């Protein structure tokens, strides 16, 4: 099927209008008319991912994070971005990114459901009542430590970073997959007793803990990797004729 046919199915479920103004989503390289029978899905368009997409014969690469955010003045092998783009084009691979539109219309509810949050609402509204992140009630009252163990179990994580008292009991939680530093105060304002997100810096962590809200930093990749499996299931349901490959789930760093 044509690349455009696949993109229309994706955008019907995850409309681009829900992307934040600063974001760069959509077809970022390649042809909409490209015939596609094989798709590769990953969180980021890294060197390893571009190589894997080419090796499996994919004609379409789908990622969550856009490789291109700002303007590009040249496309050469002098830069990592230029070199990746050249390899994509040389291998005739169309490249599509779905970032904050997926955060709003897919990732937020998926992550909240994985923690069994109840009576949820958007953490940060973007459009039409839809938004990034969710805040709601945990299935039961639990300690911050128990909540952290739940996060590790549900998202398959080896460890998480915690700000706040481990034995404090919590029941109202907020979750923001990816980098949630900018929404920490909003989570506190909406009554969250524990905030689950990634990329929390030292000062935000200690300040929120002093305000009475614990933070569980599960890492940027730690929660957002659920995009890969979710999009795999979406394509298998809506485009069953396609062969779908996915990047392996593994942390992009090591802790010694």
Q: How much helicity do the residues have?
A: 25-40%
Estimated radius of gyration: 19 Å
Shape: elongated
> Can you tell me the CATH topology of the largest domain?
Udp-n-acetylmuramoylalanyl-d-glutamate--2,6- Diaminopimelate Ligase, Chain: A, domain 1
Number of strands: 11
CATH architecture of the largest domain: 3-Layer(aba) Sandwich
Strand percent estimate = 25-35%
CATH uppermost class of the largest domain? Alpha Beta
**Number of domains as seen in the coordinates:** 2
Compute the average pLDDT: 96
According to CATH, the homologous superfamily of the largest domain is NIF3 (NGG1p interacting factor 3)-like
Keywords: Metal-binding
Protein name: GTP cyclohydrolase 1 type 2 homolog
InterPro entries: DUF34/NIF3 (IPR002678), DUF34/NIF3_sf (IPR036069)
Pfam family, one: DUF34_NIF3
Could you write a compact summary of the structure shown?
The protein has helices at 3-13, 47-55, 80-90, 100-114, 144-155, 184-189, 202-210, 220-224, 226-238, and strands at residues 26-29, 38-42, 60-63, 94-97, 118-127, 130-143, 161-163, 169-179, 194-198, 214-217, 243-246.
């Amino acid at each position: 099927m044509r690349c455009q046919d696949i993109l229309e199915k994706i955008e019907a479920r995850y409309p681009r209008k829900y992307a934040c103004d600063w974001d760069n989503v959509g077809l970022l390289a390649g042809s909409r008319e490209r015939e596609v029978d094989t798709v590769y899905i990953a969180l980021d368009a890294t060197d390893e991912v571009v190589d894997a997409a080419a090796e499996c014969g994919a004609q379409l690469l789908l990622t969550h994070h856009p490789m291109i955010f700002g303007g590009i003045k040249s496309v050469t092998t002098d830069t990592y971005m230029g070199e990746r783009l050249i390899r994509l084009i040389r291998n005739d691979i169309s490249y599509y990114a779905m970032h904050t539109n997926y955060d709003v219309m897919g990732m937020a509810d998926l992550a909240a459901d994985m923690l069994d949050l109840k009576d949820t609402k958007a953490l940060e509204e973007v459009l039409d009542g839809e938004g990034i992140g969710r805040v709601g009630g945990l299935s039961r009252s639990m300690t911050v430590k128990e909540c952290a163990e739940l996060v590790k179990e549900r998202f398959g994580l080896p460890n998480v970073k915690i700000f706040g008292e481990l034995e404090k009991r919590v029941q109202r939680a907020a979750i923001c997959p990816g980098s949630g530093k900018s929404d920490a105060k909003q989570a506190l304002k909406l009554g969250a007793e524990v905030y689950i997100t990634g990329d929390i810096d030292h000062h935000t962590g200690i300040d929120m803990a002093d305000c009475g809200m614990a933070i569980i930093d599960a890492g940027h990749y730690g929660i957002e990797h659920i995009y890969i499996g979710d999009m795999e299931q979406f394509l298998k349901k809506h485009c069953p004729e396609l062969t779908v490959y996915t990047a392996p789930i593994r942390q992009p760093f090591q802790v010694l």
